[in-house]
Amino acid sequence: MTAFSLLRHTVSVLFILFSVALLTGCTTPLLPTSGPEAESRWQARQPTLDALRHWEFNGRIAVQREEEGWFAGLRWEQQGTAYHLQVSGPAGQGAARLEGDDTGVTLTRNNGAVYRALHPEELLVAHLGWQVPVAGLHYWIRGLPSPLAWESRELDNAGHLIRLHQDGWDIHFERYGTVDSFGSSNSLELPGRLVLERPPLSVRIIVDHWRLLSNQSHH
Predict the structure, then answer these.
(1) Long-range pairs for 152-157 at CB < 8 Å and ≥24 separation?
(2) In whole angstroms, what is the distance from residue 59 CA to residue 68 CA?
């Protein structure tokens, strides 16, 4: 077995182990429901979620395309329209920083190379080799559809979005967790695990820790 083949095999094994870790754990399945009560709770949740302008989370991401897989730690900080994503693969492989806003985006590799584009997706594909819908995830990670038209959705009895089909992606919200709202005694439930699928691509994200920052917008 060549060194390249050994490395690819090792990465594949690590991806499988990591994916299993993402999918295991004590999680009660979210059950879809319908009716005016679930819809009413969903309508009540949306303005609060949409008003979140400043937040960050630490977690993990796994991307799989057919027989190839990639995984990393993920830190996302959002300040209004500006975002900062830090990805860090095993042993530093694939580490990169993605920073952008409405005017454009910059990707910085761990070797110091810097690339710029208008949209983050094209940078990720061109320089990291994997596709993650960053623009949509800005909304989906909060448990919201993006402003684009959506084809279908499912809610649970508490008014959580648990399945969404939008922009060609099938998004499953597998877990929510309680997050303390900044400067408030109220708490908010935000996604803790979600799976995005658009064959042959599959993206799994686990949020280990949410943090809501100050200066939130109140509409």
Answers:
(1) 154/32, 155/32, 155/33, 155/34, 155/38, 155/39, 155/41, 155/42, 156/30, 156/31, 156/32, 156/33, 156/38, 157/31, 157/33, 157/37, 157/38, 157/41
(2) 21
Rounded CA gap, 136 and 203, in Å? 13
Nearest to 156 by CA among 140, 133, 172: 172
CA–CA separation, 46 and 42 (whole Å): 6
pLDDT in tens, 62-119: 999 888 888 899 999 999 999 999 998 765 566 899 999 999 999 999 889 999 999 9
pTM, rounded to two decimals: 0.84
Amino acid at 44: A
Judged on CB neighbours under 10 Å (0-12, 13-18, 19+), 86 is middle
CB-based contacts of 60, cutoff 8 Å, min separation 6: 18, 22, 71, 72, 73, 74, 205, 206, 208
